[in-house]
Amino acid sequence: MNATISNFHYGVVTLVAAYLMACLGAALGLRCTTRSLRRAHRRSGWLALGSVSIGCGIWTMHFIAMIGFSIDGSLVDYDTGLTLLSLIVAIAVVAVGVFLVGYRGGTPLNLGVAGTITGLGVAAMHYLGMAAVHTNGTVHYDTTTVALSVVIAVVAATAALWAAVSIQKLWSSLGASLVMGVAVTGMHYTGMAAVSVTLDGSGDAGQSSTSLLAFLLLMLAGPLAVLLVAAVIVMFDPDMMVASTDPDRVGPAQSDEDDLFTQQQPGRHSDPYASR
Length: 276
Hints:
The protein is mainly alpha-helical. Helices cover about 70% and strands about 5% of the residues. The chain has helices at about 15-40, 45-65, 80-105, 110-130, 145-165, 170-195, 210-235, 240-245, 255-265; strands at about 5, 70, 75-80, 135, 135-140, 195-200. Strands 1-2 form a two-stranded antiparallel sheet. A two-stranded antiparallel ribbon has the order 3-4. The protein has a two-stranded antiparallel sheet with strand order 5-6. The radius of gyration is 22 Å and the shape is globular.
């Protein structure tokens, strides 16, 4: 017997919250990547923080949306190990893409490779998260819809990496993060549209459970804390605000030693009449 599935058991609140988390992760990741490209000093640290921010944002979006997932006639449970593995995969594949564009630049070939790897990884995170779902039945997937969700993930990842190396202004990056939120959330719900469940007839009737909600909130606590810390770091970094307001400073990454060398060059920033 095919079960009735809902992705909005608690209404649109889970959709809105999931979208906001995807936007937050994208915004923090874009700003961290921009910061790394402007200065070679501690570039790897900023790229790592950007990777963690985007990865946690995507994963948090997925499992906030899953709070609204319910199967009529069956309770839903999750495998803790697979759930945590999906978080690790999300961060790892985003890191591959971010570090590729951070160190090798945003050439079309590099963006294509990094975007494909990251997009496939994001799709793997999604379906690992779905593999963690335990129900009183068998979960089936529509192949065409799954393929569409993977394509959306690859396109979204490529666009995000392009934005990370191409968009410097604060407001432009915030706008890009809103678009990325739509793409990532759209990928999730496209993947969920591929799901159908056949009940085995031995399950307990019900839509959700308090223990399930408590489990998901507990899983979300860590990534949400990481996003909060990343937001504090980004907001209190002086160069972030300078980067968003000073167009003359936008350019290739430059080390602190390069700045010092430039300042010591004869005739730079000096009085043109001093030599007369």
